[in-house]
Fold each of these.
Amino acid sequence: MAGGGFDSTPRKGKEYPGKLTAHVIVTCVVAAMGGLIFGYDIGISGGVTSMDSFLEKFFPSVYRKEKADKSTNQYCKFDSVPLTLFTSSLYLAALASSIVAATVTRKLGRKLSMLFGGVLFCAGALINGFAYSVWMLILGRLLLGAGIGFANQSVPLYLSEMAPYKYRGALNIGFQLSITTGILAANVLNYGFAKIKGGWGWRLSLGGAMVPALIITVGSLVLPETPNSLIERGSQEKARSELRKIRGVSDVDEEFNDLVAASAASKKVDDPWRNLLQRKYRPHLTMAVMIPFFQQFTGINVIMFYAPVLFKTIGFGASASLMSAIVTGAVNVGATLVSIVTVDRWGRRFLFLQGGIQMLICQIAVSVLIGMKFGVDGNPGVLPKWYAGVVVMFICIYVAGFAWSWGPLGWLVPSEIFPLEIRSAAQSLTVGVNMIFTFIVAQVFLSMLCHMKFGLFLFFGFFVLVMTFFIYFLLPETRNVPIEEMAMVWKNHKFWSRFMDDDDEIDQQRQ
C-alpha cells in the first residue's frame, strides 16, 4: 500500500502478445514529430519579443517605453500587456480548434487530425514570416494556434494507441521530447538570427516554423492509422492486419477482440461530451482537468516563454540571455530522455512525486536568491556573474525536474487512461484546459512579476506542493496496464473505486 493508504501498485490484467517492432518505433517517432510545432512556438516567441527590430516595427510604444525606462526596478521593466497578448493569444485559437479536433479525430481518424494541424501551422508560419502589419501577425498566430490544437489533440492519442502497453510510456514521451527539441531549436535559431545585420532575423525565426509544420504534414500522409481508429470507423480487417504488423505476431485475436468490444461500447454513446459527465468517469474527468491545470501552474512556461526576458531581469545582457535560454533548453531535452528510459521501469507516480519535490526546492531557492539581491524595489546594484550563474543553475535543475516528470507525464497519463467511448472528447478537454491556463499564465506573468516580485516563484511553488499531494493521494499507477484494461486501476483504488459501477461494461467483456 502506498500514497497515504491508497494502493498505487499496478494490477496486471491481460498480457497481450507482441514485441517492440521496428515498424512501430518508426511510426511512433514520425508521429511524435507533431510535438515540434508546439515546442518551436514556445521557444521562438520569447526570443522574438526580445529583439529590438521586432518591437520597433510591431510594438513601437513598447519599444519606446523600454528604451526610455531609466528606472532600476528590474521586476517591472518588461511589463507590457500588448506584448504578452501577442505571445499568449495563440492558445485561445488552440483551445477552439481542439474542440473541433475531437470530432475530426473520432469520425475521420487520428491521421487526418494530424494533417490539419500541420497544414494550419504551416500557413500561420508563412504569414508571420512575411508579416508587415499587426493584423498579419494576429492572423498568423490564430492559424498557428489552430494547428497546435489539432496536433496536441491527436498525436498523444495516436502514440498511446499504437504502442505496445509495456512500452507505451517511453514511446508516448517521444511527443514531449519533440516539444523540448522544438524549444531548443528555436532558442538556438533566435540566438543566431538576432545577430543578423539589418534587423530582419525575426522573420527567419517566425517563418522557420514551416519546417516542423512540413515534417508533421508529410508524416501524417505516410503514417498508418491506429487499429483503434480503424475499428471505430468500421474497417475491422484492415485493423487486424495493422495490429499484426505493429505487434510483430500473428496471434492478436485477444487484443483485437477487446478493441472491437470497446468500439461497440463506444458506438452506443451518442454524445461523448455528455457521457464524460457520468459518475463512473469521475476519475477520468478529474485527471483530464487537474493534470493539465497543474502542469501549467508549475510555472514552467514562464521560463520557456520568457527565458530571455527573465535572464535579462537577473542581470544578463541581450546576447547572454539568449544563450542562457539555450542552456535551459538543452537541459530540458536531456532530462526528457531520462524520462523515456525510466517511465516504464520506475512508473508514473514515482517520476511525478520526485519531480514535484525537486521543482519545489528549486523554486524556493530561486525566490530566496532573487529576493536577497533585488529586494522589494527591484534594484540589484551590480549583480556578480557568479550570483546570476547560481540562479541559472537552480532554474536548470528545476527545468530538469519538470522535464522528466510533469512535462511528459502531463500528456502521457491523460492519453492512456480514457476509455475509447470518451477518448476523443476527454483528450480535447485535456488540451483545452492546458491551453486556457497556458494563455492565462503567459498573459499575466510579467504583470505578476512586477507586482509579486520574487514572491512569484513561491506562488508557483505553492501549486507544485499542492499537485504533489494530489498525485500522492489520487493518481493510481498506470504502468504496464493495457490501454483497454485501464478500468481496473480505478476499481482497485481506495478512493476512486466508489465511483466505478459494479456492472461496468469492461467487466462484462472479461467474464
Amino acid sequence: MLSIDAAAHSSRWRRRHPVDKAVLGFGLTLLAVALPPWPGALLVLVTALVVLLGPARVPAGRLWRAYRAPLGFCVTGAATLLVRVGGPDGALLGPAPDGALRAGELLLRSSAASLGVLVFAFTTPMSDLLPRLVRAGVPAAVVDVAVVTYRMAFLLLDSVRQVRQAQAARLGHRTRSAAWRSLGGLGATAFVRAFDRAGRLHTGLAGRGYDGTLRVLVPPTRVSRGFVGASVALLTAIVVLDAALEGRLS
C-alpha cells in the first residue's frame, strides 16, 4: 500500500463523507488559483499546512515524502520563467524580464494548490470515493474499471517488490550489467504476472455471476453541515484576509 493511501485509511477524518473533505481541500485549491499569489496563495499554503499537520494529524515526514514530488514539478515549471529564448541583442538565451517575480508567483500558486489537493488525498481513501461516484452521475462501467485498476496497481507493485527482493538476494544488482539484466527480467515477470492476475480476476468474477456492475459495501456516512459550514467559513476568512492585506500592501 502506498504511503499516502495508508495515511488516508488511518486518518481521523476517514469516517467523514468525501463531500466534507472535498469542500475544504478543493476549495483551498481553487483559492490558490483564483487569489493573487501574494498574499493569497501564501495564505492558502499556510492554511493547508496547518490543517494537514493539525486537525488532520498527518505525520510531517509522511507529508513531506508525498509533497516533494509535486513540489519538484512546481520548482521545475517555475524555473523556466527565469530565462527567455532570443532577445533584442541576438543572444540565444538570456534572463527574462521580471522572471524572478513571475517564477515566485507561479511557485506560490502551484505549491499551494498541490497542498490543497493533498488535504483531500490524505484524508479520503480511494475505496471510499470511487463507489460514490456512481451516485454523482459517473457511468458505472467507468467506476468499475477504476476500482479494478486501483486494486491491480497495488498487486502489481507488491509483485515488483517481491521480485526485486529475490533478485537482490541472488546478487542481481551487484554490477551494472547484472542490474540491467535484472531490470529486464523484472519487467518481463511483472508483465506476465499482471496478465495472470487479470485472467484469474476475470474467472473469479464470472464464477460469481458478474452482470456488469461491481457491488461494493460503502460505510454509511452523511454530509456534515457543521463541517461544511466551518470549511466555507475558513475559505471566506482567507478571501477577506487576502483583500485586507492586499489593500494595506498596495
Amino acid sequence: MTFERMWQDLHPVGRSATSGGYFRQPFGSAERECHAWFLEECARRDLTVRHDGNGNTVAWWGDPDGDGVLTGSHLDSVLDGGAYDGPLGVVSALAAVDLLRERGFLPRRAIGVGAFAEEEGSRFGLACLGSRLATGATTPAAARELRDRDGVPLLDAMAAAGLEPELGRSTLLDDVAVFVELHVEQGRDLVDRGHAIGVASEIWPHGRYRFDFAGEANHAGTTRMEDRHDPMLTYAMTALAAAKQARLAGQRATFGRIDVAPNGTNAVPSRVTGWLDARCATDADLAALLGEIERQAQGRAERDGTHLVVTAESVSGAVVFDPDLAARIARDHETGDWPVIPTMAGHDAGILSAAGVPTAMIFVRNPTGVSHSPDEFAPMADCLAGVDALADTLERLAG
C-alpha cells in the first residue's frame, strides 16, 4: 500500500469538522482508531507485533536479537492539533519498509516500527509518557498519580480503552540498538535553507510548570479596585513578564492554558492556574528564565495580596544526539548533504537518547512553519522525499 493511500485512510480520523484540527487524545476513541489502523497495517506486512503495559507498540521485520533498528513516532495529538506531528513518522516508517522490500533489500539487522503512547502530554500533562515509562525515566508511582482534566486516572483511561496496564520499565526496547524518528519540522529552518530533508543535532531543554495563583473571591461590582486581591491580575502580569524575558533572552516562554475559579463574569476570581511552557538553548538558560519569571511573579503577588506556588510538572534536560550517527545519516546523498539542525520541540527520540540508545531524527520540511495547529502542513512531494530518506537511512543502518 502506498504512502498516499495510507495517509488518505488515516487523515480523517479524529479531525474536527469545525476547525479542521485533530483531537486524538491518548486512549480516547480517535487515538485508539489510529492504533487499530496501525495494527492492521503491521499485520498486512507480516510484522511481529509486541506491546508493553505502558501503551507502546513495536512491530518487527525480522528478529531483532538485541541489535534492532527502530523507527516510528506517535499517533496522539495536541488539542486541535495538526495532521503531521507524530503520524507522519509512523506512516513513513511503514512506507519505508514497503520501499525497502520493493528494492529487494534484506535487512541484516531487524527493522522495527514503533508507536509510542501519550507523546504530547495533551491528556495527562506529562510529555512522552509512554517512552518515559518504558525507559524508566518516569516511575510507575508518579504515573499512577496522573489525572486528566476530568479527573480520570491514567490507569482507568487505559483500562477503558481495552488495555491491560502494567506501568514501568519494559523489555519492549531491550532489542533496540539504534532509533531513528522521522518528524515534520516544527519551524522554518529547512524552508530558509531550501532543503526538504534535515537531520537533528539536538533538542533544547524544556519544561512545563504549573503556576497556582490564589486570591479572594468577591463581587465584580461592589468591590473597590483597591480592596481586591485578584489572582487574575497577578497571572496577567506574569504572562507578560514571561513573554518579555523570553524575548530579551532569545528563548521561548508560553502560557497556553489557564483554569479559573469560580470562572464567573461578575466575580473576582479566587484562583487562577496557568501552565507555562518554557524552552531554552541550555539547561542553565532554562533555570535562569524560570527563576526570573517566578521572581517577578512573586513580587507582583505581594503587591496584589495574592499567593503563588510554582510546581514543575515535566522537565527535560538538553539532548545532544549522537553526532557521528547524525553525520552518517546526513552525508552523501544525490541532493548533497542534508543540513544538521537543532529543534526546540520535545520528542520520544530525546527520551530514548537520554536513556543511552543511539538516536537520530529526520525532519521533513514544513513550508508554513506552523505546528500544533490545524495549519501544520507538509507537501506530498516532501512527504515522499521523507519516505525515501528514511528508507535510505534504514538501509544504511540495517544493511
